[in-house]
Amino acid sequence: xxxxxxxxxxxxxxxxxxxxxxxxxxxxxxxxxxxxxxxxxxxxxxxxxxxxxxxxxxxxxxxxxxxxxxxxxxxxxxxxxxxxxxxxxxxxxxxxxxxxxxxxxxxxxxxxxxxxxxxxxxxxxxxxxxxxxxxxxxxxxxxxxxxxxxxxxxxxxxxxxxxxxxxxxxxxxxxxxxxxxxxxxxxxxxxxxxxxxxxxxxxxxxxxxxxxxxxxxxxxxxxxxxxxxxxxxxxxxxxxxxxxxxxxxxxxxxxxxxxxxxxxxxxxxxxxxxxxxxxxxxxxxxxxxxxxxxxxxxxxxxxxxxxxxxxxxxxxxxxxxxxxxxxxxxxxxxxxxxxxxxxxxxxxxxxxxxxxxxxxxxxxxxxxxxxxxxxxxxxxxxxx
Length: 384
Fold this sequence. Notes:
three-stranded antiparallel beta sheet; alpha/beta; 2 domains; Aspartate Aminotransferase, domain 2; 14 helices; 12 strands; Aspartate Aminotransferase, domain 1
């Protein structure tokens, strides 16, 4: 099998699997329990928090924290709805037109609760900075911008956007959904300039069912966010529910392993992506390559005119090649992709677009097999 769907989920690395197994079978106590077994589990969770904070360039024990959640989706909901509901007044929320559904739908909920939501254009894969500047008003309470688009691979200028926002509306909370950028492109919490950052384990060779939200300490102290899940007050009172210790430790183990080989793994992704782009330009000119001005190394969007994406996906799957027709989180819906529409694709082109996404385990030999299968699929399917 050739797996080119790593933006949907990645294969858990051996280090993550070993950590999950260990903390399922040997260190299985509740980390909130006060006996020795519980204390051992709590220490392990805090060490994992230290590891993941370090990957964001944040010192453990500094004026920042990391809240473990059940997913990146939950972390995005906590950032958006937690911030909006903490406000005594209704205000303006700013996102982009092509956000992940967990941000878009949380913003829609905020709209239903009385907030105004402004969506910034990202045509061609570039954040419209003029539109963002125009949208910044004194009643802006939250700006949530994704770092990397999960369908096009566009890398947005979040740093520049947040710098402008901080200068214009210093009281607004700045959130970045960095799920598709984390451990794919270099950044730190400080370099982004974000108050909150969402990350997820299963996009980084960790287990499914765990994500995290980085939050600057002054956001918590100023009570600019509030919980959306209530219970026993776990995770500093911001995310009640017994921590998923095996998944959290699997997350940390995966991040530690990735950090040790970050440059080499990222280069492998980039090499496979560039090999496909360059080969298609010569051998398959009918395929439109949707390249943003600044792109992440692991995502490639291709439009194959005349062949529906689901049809091509199924054909490639029959050849043992796994790709996607868009975000796995929105694959159950029948509506046109918001991300591709925001990029500038017509409804017809969006309906014939597939997404490839790579990991450090992929090779250029696999890329050649994909290209051969794609060319064969175009010939066969166009005849049908």
